[in-house]
């Protein structure tokens, strides 16, 4: 079975607390995801101290006086030591550890940690040196494309390939960068447009409030699903409100795995083994509606269609009407070919 890679995006929903981060790993492992993902950055390298928060961040945090991205991000940094602790803990819980690095130094650190792929966030899609650096690492790449046009995606792919990345090792995620994303802004068919344009594996990074859209994305061919999750949507922080709670994450994973099974058929339209058990019960046969007598010519008025379907098929009605019967038949009897002359 072609298994979808499911990435549970813890992001910064640990609020800088190692205990919360471990609890997020617990939830991800329990849900059965493939990866639990965090974020690796130094606030001073990621953002200028004068940069303002996004409108969704101001709204989700609910603190209009704390308008600086730097102040917000500084509170949710993970130290190198915390990364090592979380990697070890994830291994113990049998879920793969992953993190998004936001600069070249963070990418090198994650490489040294031994992560098996690199995830490029939407905001870094136009970061030339960063893309080239990741392209040089020789690992699989997942590229998020929120806020991007096809031309910008093409340019990013070009830089990754300049760095040494192979197109077959890149999965492109369709994404809408708003938290939460309104359903009318999802534009899920754009994922298929990306696939047609670049002939790569595709996926979807979801920021809607529910679980329907990522499940639908898998039905459309997504090979990777990324979804934010939290312990509690009411916790303070920029991303909690657009994240799944533990029960919902588990339901999403279950839904995706069920869709995978449903898509795993051979594609031929034919009865399955389970259907064959029900075929006779569900279909109908020709039955005698009114008594007929030996030598009588059968007319439509003599006949009716009833279950079970183990007799003469109603599709053979044209072959039956006008034929004589060679025995008396009572009302309610199932017609058999041996009854006909």
Automatic annotation (TrEMBL):
Q: Name one GO molecular function term.
A: N-acylneuraminate-9-phosphate synthase activity
Q: Which Gene3D superfamilies match?
A: Aldolase class I, Antifreeze-like/N-acetylneuraminic acid synthase C-terminal domain
Q: Name one Pfam family in it.
A: NeuB
Provide the AFP-like domain boundaries: 285-341
An annotated GO BP: carbohydrate biosynthetic process
- This protein's name: N-acetylneuraminate synthase
Q: What is the lineage of its organism?
A: Bacteria, Pseudomonadati, Bacteroidota, Cytophagia, Cytophagales
